[in-house]
Amino acid sequence: MENEVKKSESAAVSKPSRRKFLTTASVGAAGAAITGFPMISVAQSPVVLKMQGAWGAKDVFNEMAEEYVKRVNEMAEGRMRIDYLVGGSVVKPFEVMDATSKGVIDAGHQVAVYWYGKSKVASLFGSGPVSGCDAAQTLAWIHKEGTVFYNELVKKLGLDVVGFFAMPMPTQPLGWFKNPVKSAADLNGFKYRTVGLAADLMQELGMRVTQLPGGEIVPAMERGVIDAFEFNNPTSDRRFGAQDVAKNYMMGSYHQSMEFFEIIFNKKKYEALPNDLKAILKYGAEAASTANYALAMDLYSSDLVKLRDEDKVNIIRTPQDIFDAQIKAWDTVTAKLVAEDPMFAKVWESQKNWAERVGYYHFFNNADYKAAYEHIFGKLGF
Residue 44 has what pLDDT? Predict the structure, then answer.
């Protein structure tokens, strides 16, 4: 009997020990399985950034903004998403900078001259003075030297943003006139739409300048608020109906011979992101820059032909006399601003030093593309 009791007690002890072993073994097997196979991440909600553009719904610039958004969203692979809104969805086009800085929206797609009222230095990152460099070369300046100045400027103005630049825009036309302009003297007294330092330049030539976003230009022309204008390019101009209010399109000008998109993010939102997502936002701008330029070359050229052939617009090369007067006016404008604003002075000095070196290389090295074009296709009509 005593032996049977001992056997029973021994069995009672051994059963939980066996269960413990089996449990431990199961955990070990599971651990081995996890070690042997790739980790499966737990799905998390993506970071969503609300971005508003400064562009009307039909503007080609919306397509260019969407090219940026598409690249960012694909590279982020579901961890981050930009939701893009057209101009006016939350704030007016000229309010995008303030709205982004204050966190009303998370991000903006615009041009720096749209907040030029805060500081004329902003225009040096958008449509600044003629320096001898084209847009691509000046965008290179922003990447290599100018970003430091840009960051200093937004901090000085109390703007809580991080900004990147994309798309070296081709020279903007002098614009749309009801009657052809034959000399700089003819510009005197015109009520004209432009933005940024271009306004200072054209005022120096005797024009009365009104600064308007793109969507307000044609209605202003119809009401007589302005009697001539420029916006940016043949595609944007044709889409908002420039050809319906004027028939003379003056091509070429110094007033905005370079410009870039400014892609901005609320700094607190940006700084809260992990480094890889920050990198996607930054380098996505460089990727979009190439895509934007390719789209521009395709559409701007085809729409210029449509303006000429379908809309019966008179395409005119801006007279040399106007170019000469503009570049002299730049001298006056920049000298005044350099004397008034130390920040303007040091940014402009950096741009000039860059242009002197880069332009030297460019003009000595570049092929004569116009001569090659005329050899293949015949003389241009100007």
Answer: 77
